[in-house]
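Here is one such protein, fold included:

. . .
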Amino acid sequence: MTFSTRLKEEITEYNSNQLEKRAELAAMLRYDAKIEKDKISITSENAKIARRIYTYLKEIFGINIKIIVRNQKRFRIKQIYILEIKDKIEYILESLYIYENGKKVKANALYFETEEERIAYLKGTFLTTGSINDPSTSGYHLEFVFNTKIDATFIKDILKTFRMDAKVLKRSNRYMTYIKSGETISDMIKMFQAVNSLFYFEDIRIYRDHKNMVNRLNNCEIANQEKTTLTGLKQKESIEYLKQNDLMDLLDEHTKIVLEYRYQYPESSYSELAEIISMETDYKIGKSGINHHFIKMKKLIEQYQKNKS
């Protein structure tokens, strides 16, 4: 079972009040139902979602619903659940703000005034059109897929009321409203009250964030080491230049000590070099002192080259 399926099935275990049921059902029928003149058909591959739609329709509208179960043979055998409604079609569609005066109308946020209703509407939308990547196998990604840009934008606007940033993208002949932020997806799972899925998602997110932080620190350490090595090798070249041009005697004894040790340990950092010199000689020095002697060396070389030219 995929993480997306587990999340959806956990959502179906949550008990809703009457207003929430209507809002959730409104989304399910708007985005997933096939509406014809004499019937409404809803198809689902998930038995729990099909049962939820069936229960809500029965409870709210008191209608007879025909259930058809078919076996689909594509790669593997799986059951498809089809709900057919032939009673009170116009009344149902108008009660759920899908039709008005016999014609389909755009979804309107005014129909779902409370926060609970908007969350329920998002639940119904996710159960029928949504999917989410398993965070352990790929990046963070949650999406809703629609037939029209108007529907995709409407869901984006509802998400915005919860300060959730989503984007709309056209894919083939359909439109996708998607979220890439792990934190935002986590907030949505929490909003759906899917506790087990939330714990799973957060565990993976914490692990991945920690792993990324360790990788960044390692990369930073490698970059610093490469920079230290490059600096040391350039300073070694400068020391060789001093020796070739008999300039070492123009430096004081402490600077000579530092340069001789740098020549021996070109890959050491200033701190490591200071520690080696302090341990092996009578000259106690720190990182800033090391840097001071290399400034002296640089100035001597610059002065020599200036006089030479």
